[in-house]
Amino acid sequence: MDTPEYGFETLAIHAGAAPDPTTGARTTPIYQTTSYVFDDVDHAASLFNLQVFGNIYTRITNPTTSVLEERVAALEGGRAALAAASGHAAQLLVMHTLLEVGDEFIASDKLYGGSITQFSHSFRRMGWTGLLVDPDDPDNFRRALTPRTKAIFIESLANPGGIVIDIESIAAIAHGAGIPLIVDNTLASPYLCRPFGWGADIIVHSLTKFLGGHGNSIGGILVESGKFDWAAGGKFPALTEPTPSYHNLRFYETFGDMAFCVAARTVGLRDLGPALSPMNAFLILTGIETLPLRMARHCENALKVATFLESHDRVAWVSYAGLPSSRYHNLARKYLSNGAGAVMTFGVKGGYEAGIRLVENVSLLSHLANIGDTRSLIIHPASTTHRQLNAEQLVASGSGPDVVRLSIGLESANDIIRDLDQALAA
Amino acid sequence: MDHDYYPEDLIRGVLRSVRTIAMVGASAHWNRPSYFAMKYLQRKGYRIVPVNPKEAGGMILGERVYGALAEIPFKIDMVDIFRASQAAGPITDEAIEVGARVVWMQLGVRDDAAARRAERAGLTVIMNRCPKIEYGRLSGEIGWLGINTRVISSKRKKGV
């Protein structure tokens, strides 16, 4: 039988999973094991040499985690994926595979504050320089290119909320320079945005957010399109040159369109160690089965809340790309045609102090540092998630002193609105 | 025959029906892609016969190496071409000559004129694919590396 093109909802439930070959278990089992037996010495050698497919050690592969990887690869329309302990770990594995000491990458300055800190401080200590530019003008990326630039990194829908990035234009700039475009698709999820269709080469996710969706498991993943030519410019020796830790195997020559994930797994994940636990992989897989239903309701509720806030007399402004007043509304219609997501920011009149008062007076929304939960969440970034940033970076990242961020959950929209209304009045 | 897209039944049918595969361009070096493919396919029960003039008379993975397809003294079901596209035409003609049923050209290897000649002679031709990857994909094994197999099934997986 020929493979039909399955719909997104079907892939969210079935991709990567099949009944367990031994027991017939229909749900993917949690393979809670560290290691796997070898048939014989030759089989062991073949596994270590990457000549046969199979499991050695859960730090590198695990049968539960591999179902998650294949499922996210399918939902993104990618060739392969590699899960990691967190979104930050996935970003580390991507950069470790792409960059040598002294290399640079250019990132949007409108990113999750934790990514800006990772890029500006911890990556710098490894000899990797992440330059931050304003993504609202894609030409800013072109102007920042140097011969050492090896990648461009953006978020499709930026955190804090309401900012949509022109993926297609930035992809063209990256490809003109012979480098890949990396897109963090966490806030949109593949239900709302499919960055490979707009020219992205690598996608990263915090699985912790909408993919897992229930606020119970930390995880991350990277996905490769399989379309980038790693050899063309000679810029990526870890993929094209002999690898000393694999007896001089060349990943791109040997694994072709899946070389990036194989290298990130068998060198990066093997040596740096941030493996996802099988239990978390199972919980995230279960979450993904309802991703389409959840995202549709997240977007519906978020638009109702954004519309309510925009008309509230204690609210100075609302940034949500689903509102016609948003400067990003046209980009959202292009890149986020199924909805503008669950995350938004708004400015509360009265600045820093009013922001703190609001988050301390809600009783249904939860004041915590996460997004993409079934529960509605609220945070004042300047006093929490983004407090590592200086005043200039705070404003650049959309987290000025008056900014409050919401991640709208799946409760009754009226209850979310009533809670915000009473807390704004407090 | 559309060589940009192969139905899964065609690939499955080839992998289920062939047993003896001549691998032209098989390398004796363990870290070369052809060695990877040969070792994998041997473990799946295929007999792989290496063909490589530079290694003729020697042994690779327990099998004698021949200098050309015509020198192999027994029947070959399939010829797997692990050489550049420019070399694929003459090898395809030799494959027709020795009575192979299938010509398979590796990832990146394609010669449409040679494919037409082979098809006219009644052979099945697969181009720009790797039998190891296809076996791994259709059996689900390659999913263990997080690769998107595009296979969806509510049945237990057993081989290809």
How would you describe this structure to a colleague?
- The complex is a heterodimer of chains A (426) and B (160).
- Chain A has 426 residues and is of the alpha/beta class.
- Chain A folds into two domains: 8-287, 3-Layer(aba) Sandwich (Aspartate Aminotransferase, domain 2), CATH 3.40.640; 292-425, Aspartate Aminotransferase, domain 1.
- Helices cover 38% and strands 14% of the residues of chain A.
- Chain A is built from 17 helices and 14 strands.
- Chain A has helices at 8-14, 41-48, 63-76, 87-98, 113-125, 139-143, 167-176, 189-192, 237-240, 251-255, 259-272, 278-288, 291-310, 329-335, 351-361, 391-396, 413-425, and strands spanning 80-84, 104-108, 129-133, 149-155, 157-158, 163-164, 181-184, 202-206, 220-224, 315-319, 343-348, 366-367, 377-379, 403-407.
- In chain A, the strands form three sheets. Chain A has a seven-stranded mixed beta sheet, with helices on both faces. A five-stranded mixed beta sheet of chain A has the order 10-11-14-13-12.
- In chain A, helix 3 runs parallel beside helix 12 (278-288), helix 4 (87-98) packs across helix 11 and helix 15 (351-361) crosses helix 17 (413-425).
- The longest helix of chain A is centred in the C-terminal third of the chain and has 20 residues, at 291-310.
- The radius of gyration of chain A is 22 Å and the shape is globular.
- Chain B contains five helices and seven strands, in the order H-E-H-E-E-E-E-H-E-H-E-H.
- The model of chain B has no long low-confidence stretch (mean pLDDT 95).
- By secondary structure, chain B is α/β, with parallel strands linked by helices.
- The radius of gyration of chain B is 15 Å and the shape is globular.
- In chain B, the strands form two sheets. A five-stranded parallel beta sheet of chain B has the order 2-1-5-6-7, sandwiched between helices. A two-stranded antiparallel sheet of chain B has the order 3-4.
- In chain B, helix 2 links the parallel strand 1 (20-24) and strand 2.
- The two termini of chain B are 23 Å apart.
